[in-house]
Amino acid sequence: MRSGQPVSVFLDFDGTLVDIAATPDGIDVPTGLGDALRELADRLEGRLALVSGRSISNIEGFTGKLAIARAGSHGADMRLPDNTPLAAAPEPFPPEVLRELTIFASTHGFSLEEKPHGAALHYRANPDLEAQGLAYARQLADAHGLALKQGKCVVELVHPGAEKGAAVKAFMEHRAFAGSHPVFIGDDVTDEDGFAAVAEYGGTAILVGDRTPTQAQYSLANPAEVLSWLGLA
Ligand SMILES: [Mg+2]
Q1: pLDDT tens digits, residue range 97-128?
Q2: Domains in the chain, CATH or no CATH each
Q3: Residues whose CB is under 5 A from ligand 1 (ion)?
Q4: Would you please indicate which residues are annotated as catalytic (active-site) residues?
Q5: Span from the CA of 19 to the centroid of ligand 1 (angstroms)
Q6: Which of 16, 44, 117, 193 sits most deeply, having the most CB atoms within 10 A of its CB?
């Protein structure tokens, strides 16, 4: 890191700022998290971005409106603090794929999460469903030209190109972030794309938890440590 180089921070949400819950809606979001993030963004002169697999509207349902840079749906939807899109509007998820997933989920014991730009099969209630869910999602993705995202007890179909590394690069090319030393903090496999992207800018990757293998150089134990380290709690 160059002396005097400003730092930028990229943050995953689930498993990084909030503990993972049994269902996506079951998370316990610390009171005032939205305000704390905005204050952190102010201290970083705007160089803070949330980068999540959730949609922006879903996260804001828990935190209230977030006046910070943010990328939802694995980067398919990127916004500047004033809500201006950073790229062209993302494609909606194909309805025919959603119909097939809905039938599969209801007949095979998965819980389906509909997102504006993707759809996820959750199996936290029965982790033994993993192989079956992955195989089905993979053939569906191949048949429709979609990409797969695998996470902790979840597999998701998205449009190709929606990945956290692309979101990091898009923000790093924006004047608010350009020239900074990026730090990416995340817990899951999809965050590895973000870790790889910050490495291209000479940045730093921090894994939450102890998953292996990882490209991260550093780790924090859990979301409570992340919040404390960032001065958010
Ligand atoms: Mg996560």
Answers
A1: 999 999 999 999 999 999 888 999 999 989 99
A2: 7-89+162-229 (3.40.50.1000), 95-158 (3.30.70.1020)
A3: 12, 14-15, 187-188
A4: 12
A5: 9
A6: 16
